[in-house]
Design a protein that fits this description.
It is an enzyme of class 2 (transferase). This protein has 288 residues and is an alpha/beta fold. It is built from seven helices and 15 strands. The model has no long low-confidence stretch (mean pLDDT 95).
Length: 288
């Protein structure tokens, strides 16, 4: 099957449309970060950097650390951007960009998100680390793709009943991380968590500036939800999309979170940059 030019858009230099990358520009181990400035915060730990490219909010550095080739790419904020980044990363390794045809042999990427998050349980301290063993997505991204037997409908049903979620329209979906990468990053400094991925930072996460959120009970509903002792731990804006597309495309994915805020106590980290850098160092040590 040959993909049409309007389906797979290629730049004049042969690179993929949004990411501005050629297939040889990325490693099979890819770290994703939201903030473009965080790309250099990761790559400054590399021994060498061979690729530096960027377009819009998507910046990529590829280099080596202790002999291991690693790419780090900024996604920007939200699962809409994740839809672009994950699909185009997959295209770089599994589609022949010159002929626009699918490759016979599938390449699986290891995708590691390093991001910031806000805890919703009072017993989770700021400046600590959390790995998203499960994620529940409020974004609806999974529903735009054919999928079968990758989500957990029993947890979803319990959550919908607990929160009267019909008022929010899109059905939440629950996914799990890659067990392979989960084992790689297992560490007594990283707690396991159940992460909620929301569609925005202010109203969707019940922050009120000049507009009052329509669902003022949301935070209480999230923090009190429990399924067989599985409780929601934190809120962010990308993990569910990464888990959804990684599983559909045949890649391994895990989300590592630095707790910079606690919504239940009202605290915010006094040293968020330093805390994130410690998580980056821990991640790179595990990878290389």
């Amino acid at each position: 099957m040959q993909l049409k030019p309007a389906e797979l858009i290629i730049n004049e230099d042969g690179s993929i449309y949004h990411l501005n990358l050629l297939p040889e520009d990325i490693a099979t181990t890819v770290i994703t970060v939201g903030d473009p400035d965080r790309v250099s915060q990761v790559s400054r730990h590399f021994d060498t950097i061979e690729v530096k490219k960027g377009k819009r909010e998507f910046h990529t550095h590829t280099g080596h650390l202790n002999g291991k080739r690693i790419s780090v790419i900024s996604t920007g904020i939200g699962t809409d951007n994740i839809d672009i980044v994950l699909n185009e990363l997959d295209a770089l390794v599994n589609i022949d960009l010159k002929t626009r045809t699918l490759k016979a042999n599938h390449t699986s990427l290891n995708i590691i998100r390093i991001g910031t998050t806000g805890a919703i349980q009072p017993n989770i301290p700021i400046d600590t680390f959390l790995i998203s063993k499960y994620s529940i997505g409020f974004d609806g991204l999974l529903h735009f793709y054919e999928h079968d037997n990758i989500n957990f409908p029993e947890i979803e049903d319990e959550f919908i009943a607990h929160t009267s979620w019909d008022a929010y329209k899109a059905r939440p979906y629950v996914l799990s991380y890659s067990e392979k990468l989960g084992e790689l990053f297992a560490d007594n400094r990283i707690r396991l968590g159940f992460t909620a991925t929301n569609t925005g930072f202010y109203g969707p996460q019940q922050r009120q500036l000049r507009i009052k959120p329509s669902q003022m009970e949301l935070m209480e509903n999230l923090s009190t939800f429990s399924y067989n002792d599985l409780k929601l731990t934190n809120l962010e804006m990308e993990t569910s999309g990464i888990y959804a597309l990684a599983q559909l495309l045949g890649h391994e994915a895990v989300s590592l979170n630095c707790i910079v805020a606690n919504r239940s106590t009202g605290e915010f980290s006094a040293t968020p940059t330093e805390s994130v850098d410690k998580l980056i160092e821990l991640c790179l040590k595990k990878l290389a």
